[in-house]
Inverse folding.
């Protein structure tokens, strides 16, 4: 679970060093019971000593969890995220929340749409650029996550991916294969939160 651990540590390294970390995980199995990314994230949270639980997708219909949540994980790229739920995620992010959004190989999948919306609505400049088929390996971890907290070796298990293009301050690509990037961190400024996405959920299923 090296990449999962690095992702969590990046989320909390500047903010939550001296307090308990509470995590809301949005379930992934109602569409496909084999897509148990929610369970994988819960195991990672428990291993790190965080307080975490899996919630139904309807959790995104309310904002009562904002004040007690440090990290929101939307664990599946294909769950339905209508406009109202997208707004819930975005508002949490804008008030300082840390968010992991699972994207996938199609730019039109809900997770991809939400990430692009969050970046561009809050002042960034991001677009999806195309599908790369088959295994993308080795996938190279770059940027902040490459050395935080330890040097990260390349990993395998990335199956198909949607590449992206970003420019401007606050957005950092961190998963590189060939000449393209497949994972992104966005932190627009110190008053807002941080959002991370990767464009394949197989790496989670395979505990990469």
């Amino acid at each position: 679970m090296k990449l999962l651990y690095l992702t969590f540590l990046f989320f909390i390294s500047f903010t939550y060093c001296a307090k308990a970390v509470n995590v809301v995980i949005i379930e992934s199995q109602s569409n496909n019971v084999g897509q148990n990314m929610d369970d994988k994230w819960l195991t990672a949270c428990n291993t790190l000593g965080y307080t975490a639980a899996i919630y139904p997708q309807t959790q995104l219909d309310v904002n009562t969890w904002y004040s007690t949540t440090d990290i929101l994980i939307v664990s599946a790229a294909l769950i339905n995220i209508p406009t109202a739920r997208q707004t819930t995620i975005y508002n949490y992010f804008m008030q300082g929340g840390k968010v992991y959004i699972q994207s996938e190989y199609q730019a039109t999948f809900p997770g991809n749409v939400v990430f692009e919306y969050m970046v561009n609505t809050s002042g960034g400049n991001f677009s999806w650029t195309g599908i790369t088929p088959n295994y993308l390996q080795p996938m190279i971890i770059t940027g902040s996550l490459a050395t935080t907290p330890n040097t990260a070796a390349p990993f395998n298990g990335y199956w198909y991916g949607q590449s992206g293009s970003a420019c401007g301050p606050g957005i950092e690509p961190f998963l590189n294969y060939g000449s393209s990037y497949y994972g992104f961190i966005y932190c627009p400024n110190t008053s807002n939160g941080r959002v991370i996405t990767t464009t394949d959920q197989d790496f989670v299923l395979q505990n990469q």
User: Anything to note?
Assistant: The mean pLDDT is 90. The two ends are 5 Å apart (CA to CA). The helical segments are 2-12, 37-47, 83-94, 110-121, 202-205. Strands lie at 22-26, 51-55, 71-74, 98-102, 125-135, 140-141, 159-167, 171-177, 180-186, 194-198.
